[in-house]
Design goal:
- The protein starts with 16 loop residues before the first helix and ends in a 30-residue tail after the last helix.
- The chain has a single domain, classed as Ferritin (Up-down Bundle), CATH 1.20.1260.
- The protein is built from 15 helices and no strands.
- The protein has 389 residues and is mainly α.
- The radius of gyration is 21 Å and the shape is globular.
């Protein structure tokens, strides 16, 4: 199953945290918040893709049994974004925001002591309502942009991966990702009240994934890291949302995403067992960079910028919060850390990545289920046939 891969980084070359993410302090919140996404006036964002497409003359389907099984499940699990979702469902966005606030009356968990002395302490109900609406617009916009990134990366995997079972499965994922872009775009246009540009940190990560010439880095960056975050984020939103159209849409997408992440884990396991320590260290550094970029992207910089909230106030609020109650950490790492453990990347190269995740306070997630154990990944039948809700 393994094959030769490009190795542009010199063997044994190790980078500092500042060289990997562009700053020495991983938790420099002011630096994180000040990096805000803006859309190009042209409406297009070109990224140079350094990969070579690869043919394979080994057409022996099913040689990789688990990937073949995943492919067969994927063929049965296709759904139609136009006909299988109740688009006629009316959505009152402001009512949904108010319902969310009703279940969390302390405004996103921030009490008066946390907000004291900041611009948010003076907000009235109208401003909090606008914040809720803008946050929902921003969240669904980032889902949409991330799904387009997945669409591009999965098409790249079809081109570059060297075995036929993976090409077959990746082709089904291309269709899945196109469908996901379609549903999030339509929901934003028809049910919500505005779009946001791609978050700057997410955009930087997607650019890096697309530009890397090594096919396994596309897998690691997209299938393991970005899709792992998406699966956790969709599950969190599905759990808290009471809006029936969004809830059903997210459930359909989650069933697809579970297969996507399992695809990445299954494809990389054997390869990573055969790489040298220096090669594994490169993958660890890439995983660390991706984890930091995605954590940074969850800070909603574009919302605060649009609402004219000073960065120093958001820094103050975050400094006053208990990090143990940080839902961002739960969202990000509940799927990613177990999958990296499954791939052997936590403890490879003298445990460098384990040390980094320990410093970030997220290593406790390593013993949760990895994505190859997700019931959705190998479920029989389509989401429609199973009447998921």
């Amino acid at each position: 199953m393994t094959t030769e891969i490009d190795r542009p980084q010199a063997a044994g070359e190790m980078r500092s945290t500042e060289e990997i993410i562009g700053r020495a302090d991983v938790n420099d919140l002011e630096a994180i918040l000040s990096f805000v996404g803006h859309q190009e006036e042209s409406g297009r964002h070109p990224v140079h893709d350094n990969c070579d497409a690869e043919f394979t003359w080994d057409y022996d389907k099913g040689r990789l049994e688990k990937l073949d099984k995943l492919y067969e499940k994927a063929k049965n699990a296709q759904w139609n974004a136009t006909t299988d979702l109740p688009w006629e469902t009316p959505v009152d966005q402001e009512a949904q925001v108010m319902a969310n606030f009703a279940t969390n009356p302390t405004q996103m968990g921030w009490d008066e002591k946390v907000l004291a002395g900041t611009a948010l302490a003076k907000w009235d109900d109208k401003q909090w309502l606008r914040f809720g609406v803008e946050s929902q617009n921003w969240t669904l916009s980032q889902f949409m942009h991330g799904e387009q990134g997945a669409l591009l990366c999965t098409a790249k995997i079809v081109e570059t991966v060297p075995w036929i079972d993976a090409k077959y499965y990746a082709a089904t994922q291309v269709v899945d990702e196109a469908r996901h872009v379609e549903v999030f775009s339509r929901y934003l246009d028809e049910k919500l009240s505005g779009h946001y540009p791609m978050n700057a940190h997410l955009g930087m990560l997607l650019d890096d994934i697309i530009a890397d010439s090594r096919w396994d880095m596309t897998y690691l960056g997209m299938q393991i890291m970005v899709e792992g975050l998406a699966l956790a984020a969709f599950g969190f939103m599905h759990q808290i949302s009471e809006e029936p159209l969004l809830k059903k849409m997210l459930r359909y997408v989650m069933a697809d995403e579970a297969r996507h992440v399992a695809f990445g884990v299954l494809s990389l396991q054997e390869l990573y067992h055969e790489l040298s320590s220096s090669e594994l260290r490169e993958r660890q550094e890439f995983a660390f960079e991706a984890a930091v970029r995605m954590r940074d992207r969850l800070r909603s910089q574009e919302v605060w910028d649009r609402m004219d909230v000073p960065w120093k106030d958001i820094v103050t609020i975050n400094e006053r919060q208990d990090p143990a109650n940080d839902d961002f950490q739960i969202l990000l790492f509940s799927k990613i850390v177990p999958n990296l453990r499954k791939l052997g990347l936590l403890d490879a190269a003298d445990g460098w990545l384990r040390q980094k995740f320990t410093e970030m306070g997220v290593i406790a997630f390593e013993n949760l289920e990895d994505s190859t154990e997700d019931a959705d990944a190998f479920a029989d039948g389509s989401p429609v046939a199973r009447s998921v809700a």
